[in-house]
Design goal:
The protein is globular, with a radius of gyration of 17 Å. The chain has a two-stranded antiparallel ribbon. The longest helix has 18 residues. It has 2 domains: 83 residues, no CATH class; 99 residues, no CATH class. By secondary structure, the chain is mainly alpha-helical. It contains 7 helices and 2 strands; from the N terminus they run ααααααββα.
């Protein structure tokens, strides 16, 4: 998350390259990341993987000359999420954790399917049919009025609520519409 923030805001400090190199070095054999790998974790975490991918994407935008190093790591991370169809067990095909099918905002450090879709949209990733389950889930969550709700508010310490949980959400509606536009444009070959 720190890498994403520093790169997004073009923080002028050469140590950002060390942060990016460290993130790349922590990639696990399955293509993702896990913040508990130092404790012996052998399978990547959805939560850590999306944070690493967002950070590396922002870093690649900030330092395009590093693309040769960063892009392969990101592609392996993409494959980790796609193998899991963005929110399912790669072994059983079942939803890995029901919380991943909710639509909180802001997500903070937690993973959810719309955060993953929004990441793929932001980096204009190729359309991959393994995203289709998540796209269908997103479409099913649209309410009759054409909006999407905020499924749950932020957990942890907060100073104010951006929106009320269970109510129509401007943020989730914006994210959902951007994702669906991107998905449909990719299908029509417009991008």
């Amino acid at each position: 998350m720190i890498l994403a923030l520093l790169a997004y805001f073009h923080y002028p400090d050469e140590r950002i390259h060390d942060v990016a190199a460290y993130v790349v070095s922590q990639q696990m054999p399955d293509g993702g990341w896990n913040c508990e790998s130092y404790k012996g974790a052998t399978h990547s975490s959805f939560h850590t993987t999306i944070s690493a991918l967002e950070g590396l994407y922002e870093y690649e935008c900030f330092s395009p000359e590093k693309k040769r190093i960063i892009r392969p790591a990101r592609e392996r991370g993409h494959e980790f999420l796609l193998t899991h169809r963005l929110y399912k067990s790669h072994r059983t095909g079942q939803v890995f954790d029901a919380k991943m099918t909710s639509m909180p905002f802001p997500p903070r450090w937690k993973y959810d399917f719309i955060r993953a879709l929004d990441y793929f949209r932001a980096c204009d990733a190729p359309r991959d049919e393994r995203m289709s389950d998540a796209i269908e889930l997103l479409q099913k969550k649209q309410k009759k009025g054409g909006l999407w709700s905020l499924n749950s508010g932020m957990s942890g310490r907060k100073f104010f609520d951006l929106e009320e949980a269970g109510q129509p959400s401007r943020w989730n509606t914006l994210r959902a519409l951007r994702i669906l536009n991107w998905w449909n444009e990719k299908a029509e070959g417009r991008k």
